[in-house]
Amino acid sequence: MTDPILRVQGFHSGYDGVPVIHGIDLEVAEGELVAIVGANGAGKTTTMRTIAGLMHPFKGCVLFEGEDISRKKAHETNRMGISYVPEGRRLFPKLTIEENLELGAFTKTDREEIERNLEQVFDLFPKLFDRRSQIAETLSGGEQQMVAIARGLMSNPRLLLLDELSLGLMPSLVEKVMEAVVSINRSGVTILLVEQMVQEALEIADRGYVLQTGRIVQQGTARELLDSPEVRKAYMGM
Ligand SMILES: Nc1ncnc2c1ncn2[C@@H]1O[C@H](COP(=O)(O)OP(=O)(O)O)[C@@H](O)[C@H]1O
Ligand SMILES: [Mg+2]
User: Fold this and answer.
1) Closest CA to 162 of 78, 64, 85
2) Which residue in 14, 95, 144, 162 has its CB near the most CB atoms, within 10 A?
3) Cβ 41 under 6 angstroms from ligand 1
4) Is 0.90 topped by the overall pTM?
5) Please, which pLDDT band fits residue 142 given cuts at 50, 70 and 90?
6) Where exactly are the structural domains of the chain?
7) Which numbered atom of ligand 1 lies nearest the CA of 42?
8) What CATH number should be reported for the domain whose range is 6-87+150-235?
C-alpha cells in the first residue's frame, strides 16, 4: 500500500493506565472504506477515541498523512482533517438539526466555508434540509444517526471515523445508514468505521480488521473476512 492516509503502529491504549488495546497495527489508504469489527467490549470505541485525540496511546503511534498525531488533541486532529462521529450519536437534543450541523464545523471560522459545507451536507441528505428547523430530540433514531454523520461531515474531513452507527437501529434503518456511508465514501471521503454488526459492515467495506479483546486477530479484504469460517462462526451465527 502506498502512503496510507492513516497508519496506526504498535498502538496501546486504555483507561487510567489500564490497557485495553494491546498493540495493534492498521492502515487505511486514501479513498478506502475500512471496517474494524468485533464484539461489544473488544476495544473499538477506545481505538477510535485514541485515533481522534480524545485520549492518547500509552505506546505506539498514529500517523495521519505521515504526521505523528498521537499527542494531538481532538480539536487539532479535527482541524487537520479527521472527524469522529461518536458512538450513541451525541446530538444536542434541544437544538435544531441545522444548529447541530453547525456545531460540527466548530473548528472552522470562515463563514463562507461553513455555508458551503452545509450546502454539501444538505445535498447528500436532502431530507435533513427539509427538516432543518426540527428539534433533534424529536427525530427517530435513524434520522438522528443521519444528523450525527452529517455533523461529522461539516468539518469537510478527509478521514471520517464512524463509531457503531447501527447502535439501537432497526435492520432496515441500518441498511439505510450503511448506504449513506457508501455514498459518502464514493464522494471521496476516506472512512474508517467500527461495528458490532459484522456482516453489515463488511458488506460495504473494502477491507476489514477483526478486533478481539484489544488485539487484531484477523484481517483481509472484506470478501475474505465474509467468507472466513472463523468470522462466520464467531460473528454471524453460521
Ligand atoms: N471510560 C472507561 N473507563 C474504564 N474502562 C473503560 C471505559 N470505557 C471502556 N472501558 C473498557 O474498555 C474495554 C473496551 O471498551 P470499548 O472500547 O468501549 O469497546 P467496544 O467499543 O468494542 O464495545 C471494555 O472492557 C470496557 O469496559
Ligand atoms: Mg463501542
Assistant:
1) 85
2) 162
3) yes
4) yes
5) confident
6) 6-87+150-235
7) 22
8) 3.40.50.300
